[in-house]
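Dear colleague,

Following up on Tuesday's group meeting, I ran the structure prediction for the four-component complex that the binding team flagged. I've pasted the input sequences exactly as they went in, so you can double-check that nothing got truncated or mislabelled along the way. The C-alpha cells for the whole assembly follow below. Feel free to forward this to whoever is handling the docking comparison.

Inputs:
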Amino acid sequence: MKNQILLIILLGTLSFTTAAAQDKISSKKQAVLNSVEKHRNSLIQMSDSIWKYAETAMKEYQSAEILANYAEQNGFKVERGVAEIPTAFVASYGSGSPIIGILGEYDALPGLSQQAEPRKAPLEASAAGHGCGHNMFGPGSLGAAIAIKERIETGDLKGTVRFYGTPAEEDLAGKVYMARAGLFDDLDVCLDWHPDYKNKAGTQSSQAVTDYTVSFKGKSAHAAADPWNGRSALDAAEFFTTGINALREHVKPTVRMHYVYSKAGDVPNVIPEEAAVWIWIRDSKRSGVAEVSERMKEIAAGAALMAGVEHKVSLNNGLYEILVNERGAKVLQKNMELVGPITYTDEERAFADTIMESYGLPSQGLHGDIKELEPHKELQGGGSTDVGDVSYIVPEISLLATTAPYNAPWHSWVVVACGGMSIGHKGMIFAAKSLGLTMVDLFENAGLRKEIREEFLRRKGNETWEAMLPAGPPPVPAVTN
Amino acid sequence: MKNQILLIILLGTLSFTTAAAQDKISSKKQAVLNSVEKHRNSLIQMSDSIWKYAETAMKEYQSAEILANYAEQNGFKVERGVAEIPTAFVASYGSGSPIIGILGEYDALPGLSQQAEPRKAPLEASAAGHGCGHNMFGPGSLGAAIAIKERIETGDLKGTVRFYGTPAEEDLAGKVYMARAGLFDDLDVCLDWHPDYKNKAGTQSSQAVTDYTVSFKGKSAHAAADPWNGRSALDAAEFFTTGINALREHVKPTVRMHYVYSKAGDVPNVIPEEAAVWIWIRDSKRSGVAEVSERMKEIAAGAALMAGVEHKVSLNNGLYEILVNERGAKVLQKNMELVGPITYTDEERAFADTIMESYGLPSQGLHGDIKELEPHKELQGGGSTDVGDVSYIVPEISLLATTAPYNAPWHSWVVVACGGMSIGHKGMIFAAKSLGLTMVDLFENAGLRKEIREEFLRRKGNETWEAMLPAGPPPVPAVTN
Amino acid sequence: MKNQILLIILLGTLSFTTAAAQDKISSKKQAVLNSVEKHRNSLIQMSDSIWKYAETAMKEYQSAEILANYAEQNGFKVERGVAEIPTAFVASYGSGSPIIGILGEYDALPGLSQQAEPRKAPLEASAAGHGCGHNMFGPGSLGAAIAIKERIETGDLKGTVRFYGTPAEEDLAGKVYMARAGLFDDLDVCLDWHPDYKNKAGTQSSQAVTDYTVSFKGKSAHAAADPWNGRSALDAAEFFTTGINALREHVKPTVRMHYVYSKAGDVPNVIPEEAAVWIWIRDSKRSGVAEVSERMKEIAAGAALMAGVEHKVSLNNGLYEILVNERGAKVLQKNMELVGPITYTDEERAFADTIMESYGLPSQGLHGDIKELEPHKELQGGGSTDVGDVSYIVPEISLLATTAPYNAPWHSWVVVACGGMSIGHKGMIFAAKSLGLTMVDLFENAGLRKEIREEFLRRKGNETWEAMLPAGPPPVPAVTN
Amino acid sequence: MKNQILLIILLGTLSFTTAAAQDKISSKKQAVLNSVEKHRNSLIQMSDSIWKYAETAMKEYQSAEILANYAEQNGFKVERGVAEIPTAFVASYGSGSPIIGILGEYDALPGLSQQAEPRKAPLEASAAGHGCGHNMFGPGSLGAAIAIKERIETGDLKGTVRFYGTPAEEDLAGKVYMARAGLFDDLDVCLDWHPDYKNKAGTQSSQAVTDYTVSFKGKSAHAAADPWNGRSALDAAEFFTTGINALREHVKPTVRMHYVYSKAGDVPNVIPEEAAVWIWIRDSKRSGVAEVSERMKEIAAGAALMAGVEHKVSLNNGLYEILVNERGAKVLQKNMELVGPITYTDEERAFADTIMESYGLPSQGLHGDIKELEPHKELQGGGSTDVGDVSYIVPEISLLATTAPYNAPWHSWVVVACGGMSIGHKGMIFAAKSLGLTMVDLFENAGLRKEIREEFLRRKGNETWEAMLPAGPPPVPAVTN
C-alpha cells in the first residue's frame, strides 16, 4: 500500500510538472499546486475513510467529523450542525471580500457496498457504498480550500474562503436546507466538482425536480362481505397514476414524471383504507416543474373525488436546475489545462478494463485528458442535484473529474471500487488543483467576478429562488445504534 | 288470410269454452269474453296495421290514431296529445268511482323489420320492427277496455274505465312524462300486459334505471405540434369510465352500470375538445340507483378535474322498478285460469319450430299453458320498463301472455315475425280476455281494491315518486317527411 | 375466579336440566352431557391458555401441544406433525366403523391482542389475538370427542372417534394440506363448530376462493435519463388491475375479486423492474372461481404483453365452498334443543352492553337462544373457510355457538375480549355438548349416516375435489426465537 | 378586378427588377423570370379556380384536369391516372439526363370553405376550403416547370423536366402510392414548395408517421341481464389506450402518439361487440416510428387478451420524415435572393391586419423578406408530409413562400382567404421564380447535382425506403354525383 502511494505521488508530481510546462504559471498558482501536493496523503486518507464509513443521507456523522476536524487542524473556523442538520458544517478562513465558497459532499448510496476490487465483491452485504464518488468530493474540495487558506495566510490573496460540508445530496436535499438557512447568501462565487468518467468544465444544466407524496384515505370494509361499504384509497391511487400517464401527452418533451406506490394495501380481503404514491416531477426549468405540479395536484384531487376518499399532497422537497455559468467555466477550463491531464499506470488501465468487462460492458479506457469546453445547450439528459439551488443564489462553477473508466455505469459498484483506489485518488487531486487555481483567479480578478455575476443575473432573469421544502426542520433520521 | 282467421276464431271459441268448463263463470264475465270475441277481428286488424307501421318512440302517429279512432268509434271520450306528446292519448268511458286504467303501448324498435315468415326476411331493409310485440299490446288492452265499457253501458258495472295510449316505452320514457302530467293520479288500479313466451301473472319486479349523458369540454390543440396546449376531453371520458369500472367493486350485486362513448374524437391529430359518455345505471331499487348516481356524478367531476376540462352530467330520463302487487296477481291468475290455456294448430307449432331453428336455437315449443303463480322474490334478472313509474303511483297488475316460442330471443326478428301472425294474435286475445275478467272483479269488489291498495302502500313505504326527467317538454322528434 | 366458575357450573347444570325437561334424553346422551361437565374446567383452562398464547397460522406450537397432550392423557392415540405441518395432529380412539371426525382450530389473528376487558386494551402491543375465537374451537371440539371416547370405552358406542387438530385456518389453508394428505378420506361424517353471536345449525355455504400472486418482471432504467430503455413491471401491474376492474362487469353477482399490490416500486427515479399483485378470487362455487381465474390469467398475460415484461401467476392456495348438509343440520338442531339455550348473568349482559358501546355499536344483547333451522339458500354473504375442502371429501355438520354479543364485529378486539371470559366459555361448553349429543346419533344410527351421505353425494354431483395448492410442502414459517 | 391585376403585374415586375439589381443575373435565369411573368395571369387564374373547386383528397378531378390541360397546352406530354389514382398525373418535357422533377399539390381540407374576405365568411356552408394553400402549390410549381421547358425548347438547357400532379397530401398519402409505383425513381433532384407565412429555404425535417386502425371484436350481450356472457370490445379499446398512455413514459421525447375512438359502442344496454381506435404514431425518424409501432402492436394484442376478444391492427398508411438537403437549400437560398423580397400594397397590409384581428390574434404583418438560411437542427416541432417519402428516393429541395400574415393559424379560414387573393398570388409567383432559377443551376451544374446526391446518400445511410401502405390499390373514394 505504501509503495503504491509513493508511486502515485511521483506520478502526480510528474504530471503537474508537465502541465506547468505547457503554460506560464504564476507563483501564487504554483504555491497552490504545491499545497495540494503537501496535503495529498491526508486527502487520500480522508477519502478512503469516508469510503469505508459509507454513511447515507443525514447520517454522515463520521464523514463530516473527519473533514471538519481536518479543517480545524488547518486553522479554519468551523461551525457544525448548521441549518439544523447535525452533519452539515461551514469552515471559514480569512475575512472581508471577496467571499468564495466551495462545496463538499460525502453521503453514500444504500446497497452498493463494494471492495476496491475489479470484480463485484461487497465489503459488507447490503451495506451502503460510495457509488457516486462522494467520498472524494469532500476531501478534494477541502484540499483546494486549504491551499487558498494558505495563500490568504501568507497575504498572497485577500478575502474569505469557505468550505461547505454539504450532506444528503443523494436524498433529502441537504443543500436546500442550508440555502434556506441563508448560508450561501453572501458568497461572491461558489465552486463544486463531481466525480465522473471525464475531465470537463461544467456548461450543462441539470433537471429541476419536485418530490411529492400523494396520500389517500378511504374507508376499509370486508372485501368479500360488504365491499360496497368501503371506499378504496388504492382505487384513488390507481386513478391518480392513470391521470399522470395520460398527462404525459400534455407536457413538453423536457418533462419527466415517475412514481412508485409507497402504500398499496395490506391484505386482499380488506378494502384498503390508506394508499400513497411517491412521485417526482422534473423539467429542464423549475417553472416547468411548477406548472406540471399544479396539474398533478388537480389530478390528485380528481382521483380522490372519483374514489370518494380524502387526499393530501405533501411536498418532500424540490431542487432547482443548475444555472450554468459559461464565463466561470471558461476560467476553470484554462486552469484545468494548467494542471494538465491525468496519467495512468498500466495496472490502473488493466483495473479499468477488468472492471468494465466484469460488469458486462466494453472497456473504453480511462480518459485522463481534458475535454474541450462545450457551449451551453438546451438540456437533453436527465438527473437533478441540489447544487442547482446554490446556483440560483450565487454564481456556480462546476467541474467534472475522472475517477472511473469511460462510460462506467454510475450509481454502481464499479464507481465504488474505483473511488476506493488510485484511479479515484488521482481524479480527486486533479479536482483539488483545478479548483484551487480557479479560486486564485476569482480572488485576484474583480472584473472576472463581475462578468460571472452579470451572466448569473442574466440567466436568472425574473426567476426568484425559494426553497422547495415543507415547513419545519430537516428530516434528520433518529440515530439508531 | 280469411280462412285462417276463421280457424282462429273457432279455435279461440273452443279454448274459451274449455276454460269456462273448468270453473263457474259469472254472467258478467261471460259477457266480457263474448265482447272480446265480438271485436276479435278488429283487434287483430289493428295489431297487424301497427305491426306494419312499425313506428318508433314518439313517432307512432298512425299507430296511436288507429287505436284512438277505434276507441272513439266505441263510445270512448278521447283526449289526444296528452302530456305534450302528440302520440299519447287517454280514452275514457263512464263516470265516478272506481276508476280502473289499462295501458297500451305501440312503439317499434329500430332495425328489426321482418315479414311474418319463419326465416329472417326484412319487410323493408333497415326499417323498424315490432321486436317487443307492442303492436299487440295496444289492441289487446283496448279490447279489454271496450269489453268493460260495454258492461258499464249495460249497467252491469259502475265506475270509469280508462285506456291509456302510452307511446315511447322502448326509448324516451313516454309513461314518465304522462305520469309527470298527473294522468294516473286518480286511478284505483291499473293493468297492463306484455307479450312473452309464457302466460304468467306478474309477481316479479324490474330494474330501476337512470339514463345519463356525461359530457366533457376541453381545449383542442395540434396533437403533434403542441399537445401540451390541449386539454383532452377524451382523456376525461376515459378517466370517467376507469372510475366506473373500479366502482363496480363498491356497489351491491344488484347494480348494473353500462356505457358507450357517444363522442370520442374526430381525427387523431387534433386533441379532442369534446367527448361524451352515455351511461345507464340500474338497480333493483330506485334508491339504489340514486345512491350510485351520486357516486357517478362525483366520478364525472373527478375525471374532469383530472383532465383539466369542464363537464356536465345530463339526465336523459329514469325509470322506477315495478312495485309488484301479489294480491292483484292472485286475482289475475284466477281469471287467466277461467280463460284457459291457449291451444295451437300443427301449422303454428311447425312455424315455431322452424323459426327457432332458423335463428339457431333449439325449439322448445309454444307454451300455451298458464304458469303457476310464483311468489315475489328478490330481483335476479335485468331489464327496465316505464310501467315501473305507473306502479309507484297506482297499484299495478301485470300479465305476460305467450306470443312467441318458448325462450325466443326478445328484441329479435323472431318476435317480430310471430307477432305478425296467428301465434301473436292468440296471445293478444288471451290477454284481452284475462284482463277484462280481472277488471270485472276490480269493479265489483271494493274489498279487493282495498287489499290491493294496502299491499301497494306497504311496498311503497316511505319512498315517494318523482319523475326522473330533465326539465322541459318531452323530446318529441321533429317530423320529417 | 373460582366462585365465578362455580356459578357457571351451577348455571350450566341448571340449563342442562331445563333442556332435559323439554325432551326425553337417552342415558347415553345424558352420559355425554355429564362427561363435558366433568371436563369443563380443563376445557376452559385450555381455552384460556390458547387465548394467551395467541399463536398465528402454522406457528401454534403451544396451542397444539396443550390439546394433543390432553387428548393423550385421556387415552387417545395422537399422531403429531401430520401433513408435514408441525402443529397439525390427529387424535384417535376406538376402532372400526363408523369413523366420526371432529375439527379443532386454534390459530390467532395478527395485531388483535386484547385483555378480557370491555374496553380496547391490548395484552401486548401489536401482538396477535383470538379475534375469531379459535381458542375455544379446539377445546370445545376436543371436549365432545372425549365424551364420545368415554362412551366407546364403556361399550355404549362402537366405532372410532377422531379429533383433528387443524392449524392455520385464518391463513395458509391448513386443512387443505391435511386433506391433500388424505387424512379425512375414511371418515363417515365430520363435525365442526365456530364461535359466533348466535346459536345455529349451519345450513349456509361459504365462498370458494383462490389466492394468487401475479408477478411481473421488466427492466429497470433511470426514470429521468433514459426511461425508454426501461420496461416497467409496475405498468404491467396497473394494467392487470385495470383489467380486473373492467372484468367486474363480466362476472356473475356472486363473484368477488380483491387485490393489493405486494410490490410496487422502490424509488421514483428507477423504472420498477419488479411488481406484484396479490389477488383473491371468490365465488359461491369453486367452478365459478375456476372460470374467473382463467380470465384473470389471460388478463395477467395481456398486461405483461402490453408492458413488454414477463409475468408469472402463482397459486398460493384455494378453498372450496362448504357443501351444506341439511339432513345433518336437522339432527344437530334437535340436539342443540336438547342442550337448551345459554343463560347469562347480569354481569355478562352488562359486559356485552359495555363492550359494544365502547366499540361504537348499539348493544343488541347476548343471544343465548337457539335459532330456528333455516332452509339452505343461495349464498348472499361473503367469507371463506378451509372447512369447505373437508366438506367436499366427507359430509360435514357445522354448528355456530354464541361467544360474543349479537352483531359483534368479527375479527375485532371485541371477539378477543369475550372469548377470554365467561361469555366465551359458555358458548364453548354449549358447542361441546351439542356436538357430543349429535355424535351419539351418528354412531348409533346407520340409516341417518346413509341419508347424510346421500345428500352429500347429491350436492357434490360431478364435482371432484382436488387440493388447490402449489406443489411442494406446506409453507411452514421458520421458527424464530 | 382587372385594374388590380394590372397593379400586381407592375409591382411584380418592379420587385423582380430590384432583385436583379442585387446580383448579376445570367441571361438564362432572366429568361426564366420573364417566362413566369408571361404565364402569371394564367397561373393566378388556375390557382383561383382550384381555390373555388376546393376538392378533397383523391377527389381533385377538376383541379388535376386544369393543371394537366395547361401542361399539355404548353407542350408537355401528360400521363394521367398514374399509380391507379385518377387525379394523379405526370407531365414531362425533354429527354435524357438530368431529370429534374417538381411537385404540385392541389387537395383541399374539409369544412374550411371561406371567401377571399378578411372576416369569417364561408363560400358554401360546411364545404371544403384550401386551408393549407394547395391551390397555389400546383400552379406555382407548374409555372416553374414551364419556364424550364421553354429553356430546353430553346436549347439553353439539356435534359428532362417533369411536373408531378400529386393529389391527396392532406389525407391518404397520395405521393406514397406514386412512390410505390416507382414514379420518382429516375429523378436526379426533386423540388417542391409550400405556402407559409415566411420565405425560407427548407432545412428542417418533418415527422415520420404511421396511421393505424386497431379493431377489436368481442361478443355482445344484454348489459343488464347477462353481462357475464359478453366480451366487451370497448373494454379492449380502453385497455389499449391505457397501454398507449403508459407507453408515453417509455418513448423518446421526439415521439408523438395520438388517437381517437372510431367505434365505441352503440347503446349502453348492449355489451359492445365492436370497437376501434384510430391511432397515429410519429417520431423524428421512421426507424423510431417502426420501433414504437412494434410496442403498439403488442399493446393491442395484450389488450385483446385482457378483454378476451379478437383484434386486428390495420395499417392505413405511413410517411417518412423529410431527408433535408442543405446543399440544395443553399442553392435555393441564393436564387431566392436573386428573385428578391415580396413587396405588399397598403391594401394588402390592411387585409392582413384585419384578418388576424378578426381571427383573434395580434397582427404581425406580412413578411415578404427572405429569411436567413438556417442550419439543420434536430426536429423540435410536429407535423408530417408525404414529401418525406419522395425525399427518401431522390434528393429533395423545399421552399416555403409567404402567402399569409406572419404566424397565421394554419389549416384555418385565414389561410383560405389569403390564398384566394393577391397576397397568395404574390407568394405563388415568388415560388415559381425561385424554383425556376434553382432548376437552371441544377440543369447546368453536374458538380452541384453530385454534391446534392452525396449529402442525400450520407443522410439516408443504411435506411431503405419501403412504402408504408396496405396491400392493394389506393383508397380512391367512389364518385358520387
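The two ends of chain C are 33 Å apart (CA to CA).

Cheers,
M.
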